[in-house]
Amino acid sequence: MDISSIIVALDDPNPTKNYDLMDRLAGVATRIKIGSIAFSSQGPKILEYAHQKGFKIFLDLKFHDIPQTVSKAVLSVTQICPIEFITIHALGGSAMIQAAKEVASMQEVPTSILAVTILTSHEQAWLSEISLQHTLEQEALTLGNLAKNSGADGVVCSAHEVSQMRSALGNNFIYMVPGIRLEGDAKHDQKRVATPKEALDLGATYLVMGRSITEAKDPASVLTGLKSL
Ligand code: C5P
Question: How far is the CA of 122 from the centre of ligand 1 (A)?
Answer without folding.
Answer: 12
